[in-house]
Amino acid sequence: MTSSLRKPAALVLAYAALWFAIGLIPMVPTDLDLYFWPSAQEALAGHPLLLYAPGGQESNTNDNGPIAMVPLTAAGAVVERLGWMGNAQLRRALVQAVFSLFIVLMATEAVAAIERLRRSRLGSRARPLTYGALLLGPPLWQSLQGYGHIEQGLEVWFVLLAIRWLNRGWMGRAGIAFALAVMSRTAAGFLLIPVVTAAWWRGRRATVRFAAAGAATGLVVLLPFYLADPADVMHSLVTFRGSFPVGAGSIWNLFRDTNLGAVGQRWDVAFVAVAALAANIWLATRSGGF
User: Fold this and answer.
1) Residue-wise pLDDT tens digits, 92-106
2) Does 155 have pLDDT greater than 60?
3) 24-33, 49-58, 182-191, 265-274: which range is least confident on average?
4) Which of 11, 32, 89, 98 would bridge with 148, disulfide CB 3.0–4.6 Å?
5) Can you tell me the distance from the alpha carbon of 42 to that of 52, in angstroms, rounded to the nearest whole number?
6) Whole-angstrom Cα distance, residue 211 to residue 127?
7) Residue 278: which pLDDT band, with cuts at 50, 70 and 90?
8) How many angstroms separate the CA atoms of 157 and 111, rounded?
9) What b/e sequence results for 247-272 when a residue is b if at least 16 CB atoms lie within 10 Å of its CB, and e otherwise?
10) Three-state secondary-structure class, residue 224
11) What is residue 123's DSSP assignment?
12) How far apart are the C-alpha atoms of 202 and 207, rounded to whole Å?
């Protein structure tokens, strides 16, 4: 390894080691323990297409696509080999170290995006500070360590890849990357609104290429799981949200005991989508565009 690569490699290893150490802190079970590990264990047991079977028809389940389960299952195989499967802290520590690598990829892509927007390279002081803000940002740490959402760094990395490729006019690649983001974390679907709006400005044909590549990728990823276990896949990825209660901190709590409470419970996603669409249309059509 050349000297120019040794320092970045050492920093990445140190960052992964930090996530490993943080994972050793005792804490209550997170979504990683309750929903994602059972899916990985199902795959390790020889049933990779039954990722959604452990949750069955329960009110809460693994509601993300299967892409993040690939590195989680690989990490699970290592955990199994080391004999750590019964130790929640060691198990969590190794998984967080593995998924921290996707956070590094996300930060690298984000810094590159900032430099493209600036049309110049960040300075010798600004660059490490920017990396630090991305790699050590509290929301990401709270999400992964506090809630067990290992997939968020992977999701955002795919989205940033999709945006870079879209800006270069590589619509097929952009569609594939965006579909992989949604297949990593379903909430990424909301970002389809600004991304498709940006694609639309490149022309109808470009938008069709983006949409076709994304739809084909999503179909290829999900179809085997759906054919193997249609009821659990539909429940986990689509229908269970309708029975989910309004969460704490939501504005819909103001209407909990009224007829509007049921509207908020079942249609809050539609309200968010309409608001996002309106905001993006306004941004796209104002003077100067985005």
Assistant:
1) 999 999 999 999 999
2) yes
3) 265-274
4) 32
5) 9
6) 35
7) confident
8) 11
9) eeeeebeebeeeeebeebbeebeeee
10) helix
11) P
12) 7
**Among all chains, which residue has been given the structure tokens 């989205």?**
159
Find tokens 């179909």 and name the residue. 219
- What is the rounded CA–CA span in Å between residue 87 and residue 26? 11
pTM of the model: 0.89
Which DSSP letter does residue 102 get?
H
For residue 238, the model assigns a pLDDT of 83
Confidence class for position 252, pLDDT limits 50, 70, 90: low
pLDDT by residue (tens digit) across 121-153?
998 899 999 999 999 988 888 899 999 999 999
Helix/strand/coil percent split, the chain, to 5: 75, 0, 25
Instruction: Answer positive or negative: Cα dihedral of 98, 102, 108, 111.
Output: negative
DSSP assigned state of 45: T
3-state DSSP call for residue 84?
coil
Tokens representing residue 108 in the block: 């690298």
Q: How many angstroms separate the CA atoms of 57 and 95, rounded? A: 27
Q: How far apart are CA 60 and CA 245, in angstroms?
A: 11
Type of residue numbered 260: L
Distance CA 231, CA 236 (A): 9
62: tokens are 């693994």
Q: Give the position of tokens 């660059």.
A: 127
Two tokens, residue 79: 């955990």
At 78 the pLDDT is 96
